[in-house]
């Protein structure tokens, strides 16, 4: 009988797949390829020979040691397209290791630039001025500048960039200057988060984006620092997916912000940092008279609170019962997702319980409550099932967390349930940075 451990008898191809499945994109986590290449000689040979494992390259432009590690990744990734993460979190004079990157610029498919000061951004981006980036499809810019007390950051000016394949842009705590660079017209995906820029600049760029970008399909807008207001919503004939993030203390009605939207081809709408009482007010609202979302089939609400919410105190925050399904605002909506929303059990009872009006279009209901509310949600869903069964009415597919999914009640009553994936529709970003 062989004394060689089973894992050492794996073929190289399987070992590479195992390493690839463990790759991380989190901040300050050593990557699986780096760790596994130091286990033993056999692992080192297999892992270092697999060029596809070395395509996520991080270069801290303020650290010499990071430059050497980036050089190693660039060498081992061979001719593969790469994801390049550039960061400058300290004072940047001369970028360290940038000369290692220059010969590989044509291989960059995803580029992330994170910076502490605007001057650092301009120092970095100048290396890409008038340089061909034939493979670049996704650009991500993250500002970590300190708040000067005003809460405002000046927009960023981009030098001429040659990016014929660019389709996706994500900017955090910054926006491009107006008018934006011409290459933005080709974008299909745009994420603008935590935009702490003067309101005039924000509105100019948003109007340009939605009215001058015929190819834009996916848009994520952070409205936590300002709001559109009546007559200043989004107008787009191309958008199919729209996500809006509001201020956590946002108190105005959602219908106030959404009333002037004109998005006839939108199929998914996500509203983030919302509360259950706002959802109820939106569903009950009588404005606008004509739906700005005639094609939306999927609607998602997300509350950021993991453990509790001030709305739990009903003496401070009242809940207005939903009296009718939101057919006027969302006439063809068939999927509703509620992530950590306060009042979720009551919302479900209002929409599907004994006092509800028929809503045959609803095919999928996906509630993910906070842990403390799970049992209340379970009870509300049980009541809905019993009521619908007594009336011989249709039930939607319930997508539930594993803890709620594995309940005998669903089997005993023949209820169609499925797993709600661990994706709350409010995706953060992270730039991978190896610890040296």
User: Separation of termini?
Assistant: 41 Å
The helicity comes to 25-40%
Percent of residues in beta strands: 15-25%
CATH architecture of the largest domain: Alpha-Beta Horseshoe
Separate helix tally: 13
Per CATH, the class of the largest domain reads Alpha Beta
Q: Structural class, from secondary structure content?
A: alpha/beta
Could you say how many structural domains there are in total?
2
Total number of strands? 14
Q: What sequence of helices (H) and strands (E) makes up the elements?
A: HHHEHEHEHEEEHEEHEHEEHEHEHHE
What is the gyration radius calculated from CA atoms? 25 Å
Which of globular, elongated, flat, extended, rod-shaped describes the shape? Answer: globular
CATH fold call of the largest domain: Leucine-rich repeat, LRR (right-handed beta-alpha superhelix)
Main sheet specs: 14 strands, parallel
Strands across the major sheet, in which order?
1-2-3-4-5-6-7-8-9-10-11-12-13-14
Low-confidence stretches: 424-436
InterPro entries: LRR_dom_sf
Protein name: F-box domain-containing protein
Organism: Roridomyces roridus
């Amino acid at each position: 009988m062989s004394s060689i451990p089973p894992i050492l008898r794996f073929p190289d191809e399987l070992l590479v797949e195992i390493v690839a499945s463990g790759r991380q994109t989190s901040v300050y986590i050593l990557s699986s390829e780096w760790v596994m290449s130091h286990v033993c000689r056999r692992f080192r040979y297999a892992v270092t020979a697999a060029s596809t494992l070395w395509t996520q390259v991080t270069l801290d432009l303020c650290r010499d040691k990071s430059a050497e590690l980036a050089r190693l990744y660039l060498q081992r990734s061979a001719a593969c397209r790469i994801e390049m993460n550039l960061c400058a979190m300290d004072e940047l004079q001369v970028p360290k290791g940038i000369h290692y990157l220059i010969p590989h610029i044509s291989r960059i498919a995803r580029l992330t630039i994170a910076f502490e000061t605007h001057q650092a951004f301009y120092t970095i981006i100048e290396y890409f001025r008038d340089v061909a980036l034939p493979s670049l499809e996704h650009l991500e810019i993250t500002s970590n500048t300190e708040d000067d007390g005003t809460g405002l950051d000046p927009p960023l000016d981009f030098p001429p960039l040659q990016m014929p394949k660019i389709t996706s842009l994500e900017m955090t705590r910054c926006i491009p200057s107006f008018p934006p660079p011409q290459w933005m017209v080709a974008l299909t995906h745009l994420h603008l988060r935590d935009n702490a820029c003067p309101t005039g600049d924000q509105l100019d760029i948003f109007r340009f984006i939605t009215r001058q970008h015929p190819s834009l399909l996916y848009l994520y807008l952070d409205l936590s620092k300002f709001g559109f207001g009546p007559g200043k919503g989004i107008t787009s004939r191309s958008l199919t997916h729209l996500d809006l993030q509001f201020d956590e203390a946002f108190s105005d009605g959602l219908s106030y912000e959404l009333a002037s939207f004109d998005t006839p081809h939108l199929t998914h709408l996500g509203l983030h940092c919302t509360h259950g009482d706002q959802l109820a007010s939106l569903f009950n609202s009588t404005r606008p008279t004509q739906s700005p979302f005639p094609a939306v089939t999927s609607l998602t609400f997300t509350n950021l609170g993991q453990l509790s919410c001030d709305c739990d105190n009903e003496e401070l925050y009242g809940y207005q019962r939903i009296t009718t399904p939101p057919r006027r605002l969302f006439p063809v909506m068939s999927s509703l997702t509620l992530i950590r929303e306060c009042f979720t059990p009551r919302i479900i009872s209002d929409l599907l319980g004994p006092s509800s009006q028929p809503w045959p279009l609803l095919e999928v209901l996906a509630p993910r409550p906070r842990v403390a509310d799970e049992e209340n949600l379970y009870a509300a869903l049980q009541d809905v099932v019993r009521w619908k069964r007594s009336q011989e009415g249709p039930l939607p597919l319930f997508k539930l967390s594993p803890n709620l999914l594995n309940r005998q009640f669903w089997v005993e009553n023949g209820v169609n349930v499925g797993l709600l994936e661990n994706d709350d529709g409010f995706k953060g970003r992270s730039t991978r940075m190896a610890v040296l």
